[in-house]
Write a structure and sequence with these properties.
The protein has 150 residues and is mainly α. It contains seven helices and no strands. Helix 1 runs antiparallel to helix 3, helix 3 runs antiparallel to helix 5 and helix 5 runs antiparallel to helix 6. Pfam families: DUF2306. InterPro entries: DUF2306_membrane.
């Protein structure tokens, strides 16, 4: 169901859409540069070989969350298609849960092969990502939309 307001793209929609396209392109470029991991060989994966499926899930779901999350901030989507905003939000939540769960495993295992500060910083980042996403989801469930938008 959509709002009764007519859907028209305006000049104020150009900036958010260009930002989303830039994020989608950067994400595609990064994921394309990770194609060598799909060989799933010890040579291609190095220290990630024993956790190859966790790494693949992290990269795939992380890319999905970047693309889905960015489009959620476009006001026209929220205002015109609230159901679509909710569906994309649920897919985003799922992508974050999968990617961040994998990130926790990677941060507590292979990241220590780099060094302790690197591993710790990844653990902090994943904690912030999980926490902020769950707070936003909870506030939407409680219909506290101003908090949800923050």
């Amino acid at each position: 169901m959509h709002s009764s307001k007519p859907f028209k793209l305006t000049t104020t929609d150009i900036t958010p859409l260009l930002i989303w396209l830039a994020i989608a392109f950067i994400t595609w470029t990064f994921m394309h540069s990770a194609d060598h991991f799909l060989a799933l060989t010890p040579e291609a994966l190095g220290k990630y070989y024993n956790l190859r499926w966790i790494l693949i899930a992290h990269i795939t779901a992380g890319g999905g969350s970047l693309i889905l999350g960015a489009i959620q901030f476009w006001p026209k989507l929220r205002n015109y298609y609230k159901k679509l905003h909710r569906v994309i939000g649920l897919f985003y939540l799922l992508a974050v849960i999968v990617s961040s769960s994998c990130a926790v495993v990677l941060a507590f295992t292979t990241a220590y092969h780099v060094n302790l500060p690197y591993a710790f910083s990844l653990q902090v980042w994943v904690s912030v990502w999980i926490s902020s996403t769950l707070i936003a989801y909870y506030s939407a469930l409680k219909r506290k939309f101003e908090l949800h938008r923050q």
